Amino acid sequence: MQISSESYGDSSVVVSEMHQCEAMLLLAKPGIVCAETLSAFTAMVMASSQLHSFVLEAYGIICIVLAATGAAMANSVLESNTDRQMVRLKRRCRALEVVGSVKATVIALALISSALIIAATFVNMLTTTLLIAAAATYLLLYTSWLKKSSCWGVAAGAIPGALPPLIGSAAVTGHVSAPSLMLAFLIFVWQLPHFWFLALQHLDDYRQATIPVLPVTHGINLTKALSLLCVVLLTPISLTFYITGYNSVEYAVVACIVGSAFLVICMVDIFRLQVQAQAYHASIAYLAVILVALICDCYVG
Ligand code: HEM
Ligand SMILES: CC(C)=CCC/C(C)=C/CC/C(C)=C/COP(=O)(O)OP(=O)(O)O
Question: Is the Cβ atom of 240 under 6 angstroms away from ligand 1?
């Protein structure tokens, strides 16, 4: 970086800064952070639609974004050795070289600490505790231990993935609401096929990095069968919001349509010899539609 700025003058400084920003963004996994934030926001809207909670909502969102970004960056540092062996993660490894492990670690810790300080000072202790639980289960239980030692590590990764709705609810109400628990359960189940579709697609990568994902340890057919089972379960789970009276029949219709569409796409993709990207992309689209439907239903209903 320094060489380029000395050799090419001021304009190259801008270029190197751009590289740093892009690299930081890659390490921070913005797609996952956005989805996590949307799931927390959905729970906030469902827990309390009163205007006076706007400030707590804002603090809650800030805490989730900071903690999830910090956790993602820390994960990128902790996993650099295995990431280096995966074709899918070439750009992330390059990003870590550009930023540097020490700087990335300092930024990650600063982001997580800021989230905890803001939560403890301006929100409440339940939110702070849940944020600590999310960061600890992601970085210690999943990243540093179970991801590399068991194919069921995905269930450990699904814990921090499912916690943001609880964090959102805790931030605006001070407690964990029933709809936030239902949403956390929906996301927990959703994550399994979401990850297995990706693992099926990048099987050679995971084998090369010796990460024991389900299709590597128990075969492709069992993975496909369990993924399909989870996708089938998603529609009844998503309907619990309607059955328990939290959401309208219009929401229930949307949940049935999007659940059926997801299932059809998965079946088409799964019965191919080699799973392609459709089921994985459909998983992201499915969750996005369900979350937006829940939010719209709360505002309209
Ligand atoms: C067990 C838990 C989970 C695992 C193992 C997992 C794994 C992954 C992986 C490996 C990717 C690919 C990232 C990349 O290509 O850089 C991904 C992408 C994604 N995941 Fe997950 N995920 C999990 C949970 C979640 C949760 C809880 C959410 C949201 C609430 C989520 C939302 C997304 C989104 C939106 C993307 C696309 C990101 C992008 O393309 O930038 N994931 N996930
Ligand atoms: C509020 C807070 C601290 C939330 C943390 C939640 C969080 C970032 C959850 C991510 C879930 C997850 C296991 C993602 C990717 O897996 P991976 O790391 O195995 O993906 P990779 O193969 O791309 O590294």
Answer: no
Whether ipTM exceeds 0.95: no
% helix / strand / coil in the chain, to the nearest 5?
85, 0, 15
Q: How far is the CA of 198 from the centre of ligand 1 (A)?
A: 9
- The residue whose C-alpha atom lies closest to atom 18 belonging to ligand 2 is 75
| pLDDT tens track, the chain, 301 positions | 333 332 323 333 333 443 899 999 999 999 999 999 999 999 999 987 655 589 999 999 999 999 999 999 999 999 999 999 999 999 999 999 999 999 999 999 999 999 999 999 999 999 999 999 999 999 999 999 999 999 999 999 999 999 999 999 999 999 999 999 999 999 999 999 999 999 999 999 999 999 999 999 999 999 999 999 999 999 999 999 999 999 999 999 999 999 999 999 999 998 887 777 899 999 999 999 999 999 999 988 7
Could you tell me which of 214, 212, 209, 178 has the C-alpha nearest to residue 194? 214
Q: What is the pTM of this model?
A: 0.92
Q: How many CA atoms lie within 13 A of 39 on its CB side?
A: 30
158 ligand 1 Cβ < 6 A: yes
The rounded Å distance from CA 71 to ligand 2 centre is 8
Q: Which atom of ligand 1 is nearest to the CA of 192?
A: 1
Q: Where are the domains of the chain?
A: 5-300
Domain 5-300 has CATH 1.10.600: yes
